[in-house]
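Subject: two folds for Thursday's group meeting

Dear M.,

Sorry for the delay on this. The cluster queue was jammed most of the week, so I only got both jobs back this morning. I'm pasting them in the order they finished. Each block is the input sequence followed by the predicted structure tokens. Could you check whether the formatting survives your parser before we put anything on slides? The first protein is the one we discussed after the seminar.
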Amino acid sequence: MTRALLALLLAASSPPARADASPGGAAPITLDEALALAGRDSHELAIARADAGLAGADALTAFAGLLPRLDFTTSAGRQLFGRTQGIQLVPTVDPVTGAVSFQQQPATVAATSYEAYSLGLKLVQPLVSLPTWRQQAQARASERAAARSYDETRLTVAFDVTRRFYELVRAGRSLVVLEKAARRSEELVERSDALYAAGRAQKADTFAARVNLGNDRIAVEQARARLALARADLATSLGRPGDADVQVLAPAGLEGPLAAAAVPPPLPELLATARARRPAVAAAAAQIEAAEAALGAARAAYLPTLQAELSYGRNGQQLVGQDGVYGDPSRQYAATAQVVLAWNLFAGRATEAAEQRARLGADKTRAGAARTLDGVARELAGARETVVTQARQVGLAAENLGAAEQGLALARQRLEAGLASQLEVRDATLKLTQAELSLVQARIDHAVAAADLNRAVGGAL
């Protein structure tokens, strides 16, 4: 399931076409490689795995309440008795009659001590304990909810990595476009100087061309800063330090001719798929089951519990030997076998309060599950509409780019023929730069929107 969630996040994650790595930089990675790295090293996933493990430990603890418990105890020491003042009866014989009488006389008993040893075994087996059974059911449901929450976190992390991967691609592509614009401005400066030298342009045109070149170079530096920030964002999503040199290979879907975008399935079909596949929906259902089990456990506290007990114990002043505590186990022992019925008749309304809290908790969980399902439906509606809209924008941006390229070529021809001013060429250059940036933006936004739709539906597209 991990592989499917990570590898199927984007249909655009096809073999790479070109690198965005700088010369001498780190080896570039594909989107699939980035997802695999995040699945292994992401801090968010590590926290989610720990939470799922804790839920498993809680389930094991709850199950232990149904199993027998065997305790062994032993002790070794001395018992001390301090000096005491008491009364003793002293016999007296009458010398005449020979009758014996007793007289009370004060007596002092000296302090004394002796060795004391003990050994005990006690076995307890619950027979009927409805609260424990319901607690175990609650723990199992909570464990399932934690597992599904972990799957939801994997979806979220995979989408976050995908989004930041494409943000880095966007920043790299934008930098390339702006560097091309700066080079076109340099060419325009050279042409302005040549035209001025030939007496076909004014000196002000050369100054304007240099200002435009300066502005384009400023835009390039700003794009480099955005590229560095996008690289740091992707690095942290991969579980690496923010200053790591992360380079990416853009998916081939962002290169070459535009392919017709597939229309997403209808919204009802997507919602049905999400109800069956989205981990958040499954986690909400498991949480409802756990809340209902908790309510059952609270109500079961009104009922009695039944358990069987076996105990064996030995006490003595000798540790070993035939009559010692660790001697013949068939001598000097005390053993019991009993069935214990325990029934709490009144606990100061604590049981009633626990039931009320459990009932309110179940109501809250059901409301939260309904909110989760509504949120999934909203996410699907928005993500599907965004995919459709972005697909149309990609086509429009491609048409604009073709028109902008033709417009710049025409403006340059007119400038060479003396029929146009530098301002017209500059305007055509800006339109071409904007069209190139718009196409980069539209294609990447469409890819990110497809990934978001795939996340919203549970990784099933």
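Second protein, same layout:
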Amino acid sequence: MSSAGLKRRAAYGALLRREHYVPFTLTVALARMSAMMFTTGGVLLVLSRTGNTALAGVTAAAAVLPGSLSGPVLGAWLDVARHRRLLIVIDQLLSVIGLLAIVALVGHAPDWTVPAVAVIYSITRPLSVGSFFSTLNEVVGVELIDTASTIEASSLNLAFLLGPALAGLLAGAASPAIAVVVQAGLTLVVAGLVAVNPVFELRSPHRAPDARSALRDGLRSIVASPLMLSVGVASVLASLGWGLMNLGFPLYAVHSLHVGAHNSGYLWAAVAGGSITGTFVLHGAPSRRRIALSYMLLGLSALLWPLAHVLTLGILLVGLTGFLEGPAYSGTITLRQRLAPPAVRGQVINTLAGANLVAVSAGSAIGGAIGHALPLILAFLAINLVAAAIVAGTRLRARLGG
């Protein structure tokens, strides 16, 4: 084994031995997996009961947009709140209420009520998201944050893999409603795990004096860092592309792969599994060049998707796209953890994550309005090429001193 490989192995060992790290990571992974079930379960529930792709797209958007808009303010609140753990539990319980209300209303109440209650499900989500990201630095320390960020990327991808796959499996074997109810149950378990674990109260000793200062300083730090800003913009565009696939994958499954729409869960699992593999196989120090190349190649790989006409080949080709995404995804997470100032880390990460969620929700709504797989795939390609150009262009301007 090379010296670099030995160093990485030693770092992973040290990370696993770090106090609180394993229970913290497992709880966060379960929270993320349950949240990602809605990508498949919620959309399939609306489609199965109403057949309305536009309503499915708007509901998917409503499940993320309110939280993305509240993210900067709630992130600032997290940086100064005395009882962060309580805020996470409140968020998880509100999500349970929203999920059960969606099951009760879809197909049995006016269409507008479904995205309306999806707002309850999503609006406080930044309280959990921001806490999970910002606590990581305090759990692992500066010396292990790069290694922990690699695991963090894998945790997020594992949520994309297991959440939609589990929802698709439950929807196919039982019903989409059962999938959403199971998600509510898992979310309730997460609330209990957070409530009994004091590690979620950890935060930097450096704090902003109040929420207004945290909001101001966090936004300024993003704008002041060309690297964090350019990579953040590219990540937002990439999220827009994946948002299109919330409807694109079910349509692709039905019209290109000739299988049920619930198989879209397996396509999301392929993306996540590929990205996890790509994170480790294509491992390297995060840089603009690696991130830009990753976006370019993953976008181009989508041209292969329409060549598949059976589920197995579709899964393999979509998995290849996920594999090529690995360096961009893990690199973006690592750079955010490095560059976000400790005193306003919650605000910075929630703002950037919130912008991503706005893009996902916009993609979901656009995908529902278009309603055809091929145009969505071509849009996915174009969006990722633009993301690559933004990151590469910023790198070139940095070289030229512009």
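Two things I noticed about the second structure. The CA atoms of residues 3 and 394 lie 33 Å apart. The two ends are 42 Å apart (CA to CA).

Cheers,
T.
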